[in-house]
Structure formats: structure tokens, C-alpha cells
Amino acid sequence: MSKTWPLWEVFVRARNGLSHKHVGSVHAADARMAIEAARDTYTRRMEGVSLWVVRSAEIVASDPGEAAALFEPAADKVYRHPTFYTIPENVKNI
Amino acid sequence: MRDAVSDYALRLGDDSLILGQRLSEWCGHAPMLEVDLSLANIGLDLLGQATHFLGLAGEGKGVDADRLAFHRDVLDFRNCLLVEQPNGDFAQTLARQFLFSNWQELLFRDLTRSRNETISAIAAKAVKEVAYHARFANEWMVRLGDGTEESRARATAGLEWMWRFADELFDVDETVEPLVTAGVAADARALRAEWDARIAATLAAATLEMPRPRRGARGGRAGHHSEHLGHLLSEMQFLPRAYPDARW
Predict the structure, then answer these.
(1) How large is the average pLDDT for residues B90-119?
(2) CB pair distance less than 8 Å for B37 and A37
(3) Structure confidence at residue A3 as a pLDDT band (50, 70, 90)
(4) Of A1, A27, A30, the CB nearest to B34
(5) Which CATH architecture has domain B2-242?
(6) ipTM for the predicted complex
(7) Secondary structure in 3-state letters for B111-139
(8) Number of A:B CB contacts under 8 A?
(9) In chain A, what are the domains?
(10) Segments making up each domain of chain B, as ranges
(11) Half-sphere exposure of residue A23, counting CA atoms within 13 Å on the CB side?
(12) Which residues on A lie below 8 Å from B132 (Cβ)?
């Protein structure tokens, strides 16, 4: 058996209404196997109600070398945070 | 009737127990970490079913599931011969799972309508687990059969090994017949055509031939087992027999 099964990133939706969250990765030869491996590896303790898997090679990542240009300019833009509003106590999940 | 239900539950429980133990033998040895987890998960599902069925089998007799699992000798086991067959290679293990899970899914689907409430409740929970086992095994048969020359040869050899143990799954003997009439047990004979169709469909997708018919091996339900079961039990039962008071 080939030792070179491609890697797949696994995303789990914990409950309806929440978004899928990255939880890890699995090796699998095809998409169905990836879903099954993800199911057996990451949802056996009732962690989720839905799964996404995507070939890791398909993920486009930002270049760490560009991190300064991409992210540091946001550091001093405090006015972009909506912190000047008071949120009523009964409003959850904000 | 009470004794017949107990015997029937023993058969169902022993099928799941022995196959669960077989699958656990793969733990740490499967070809990939992910597959290792999948086989262990399936084994644990089966162990859970066994706990419920053996609990029912021992009800009113003062024995619990552990007692039945760990303190019974080989002649008293009532599992079908298929589940005790050795793992062999990965393809042989999957061939066994393929034949068994497709049968067990149909069986449990019918048992959800059992007039015995405990049996129908266990079946209702287990049928979802087993539907996944069947899906997993069917897909692997296709991958192996329609894979490389080597995987195809192994899948063919695995099926050849297991095929003669399939007929026994569809037997209804004098113990079960009255339970079928009473609506407690499933009529396994009636599952054959649907099972054949499912097996044929997957094998066609896997580009594998149906194995040639041959004389079916039988005897598990009467306690006439192959040599393999004794070895399995000696490993499974060693700890509770050597240390009967152990707690964990």
C-alpha cells in the first residue's frame, strides 16, 4: 500500500448555527475515504454534526514573509473595533 | 420462549463480540493510522452491541455480559463461523467485514420491528452503526478490487477464504423458527436475495467476480467451531480468568 496518500484538512461544524472549524488533518486516498477517516478520527465523541474535508494542497496560504506588510498595519487602527458601543446584557454571541 | 430468546440473544451477542475482538487485533497494526482508528471504532461498536445482547442473554439467569464473555468455553459460543475467521491481511479482514456487515445491517433493520422490546431497542441503536460499517467495507472492496494488481489479487483471495461461511448467516434452525413465528427473531432466510443483490452490486463496482458457489461451512450456532476460535478466546479471556477479582 502506498505511503503517499495525500493529506486532507478537516473542518467540523460542532452544532447547527456555528461555522465549520478547522480541527486537524487526515491521510486518505480519495474524498470518501477522507470523510470516513475524519469521521472516525475527529467526531467519535460527538464533536460535530457536519464535516468538510479539503485537499491540503488546495489551500492557499499567506506568505509568512509578508506577515508584517499584511497584518501589522492593523495594529494601530483601534477605531476599526466597534468598542464604543454598549452592548445590551441580553445580547449573546457578539 | 424465555430460553429461546436467551439463546437468540447469545447468538447475536457472540457474533458481535467475536468480530469486535478480531478487529481489535488490528489495533496498532493497520496500514495507516486513520484506518487503525476506523477498525478500532468498528470493533468498539460491535463490543457495545455484544454487551447489550449478552446482558439480555443472561437476564434471569444470574449471569452478566462479562461472565458470558469471559467465563464460557469454546463449545458454548454460538457465533457464526464467519466472524471467528482469522484476520489474514487487510483485504481478508475487509472481505469478512463486507460479507458480515451487509448481512448484519439487513438483520438489524428487521430486528427494529422485533416484538421483544429489548431486542428492538438494541437493533434501533445498532443499525445506524452497522450501516456505516457496511458503507466502509463496501467502499474498501471497491478500492481494493479496482485498485492495483496486488490489491485486486488480495481482495479476490480474501473473498475466496470467507465465501464458504456466508450460507450459515441465512440459516433458521429449530431454536429460531418459533421466534420467527412469534415476531421476535428476524427471518434470515428472507434476507438472502437482498444481501446477494448488495454483494453483487459492490463486487460489480469493484470489478470483482462473484466467488463460485461451494458447500457452505456450518456449525457455529451449535458450538462446532473452527480451531481459530479457541486461540481467540485464550487471548481474550486470559486476563479475567487469571485475575478474576481484578478491577479497573
Answers:
(1) 98
(2) yes
(3) low
(4) A27
(5) Up-down Bundle (1.20)
(6) 0.79
(7) HCCCCCHHHHHHHHHHHHHHHHHHHHHHH
(8) 31
(9) 1-60 (3.10.20.520)
(10) 2-242
(11) 21
(12) 39
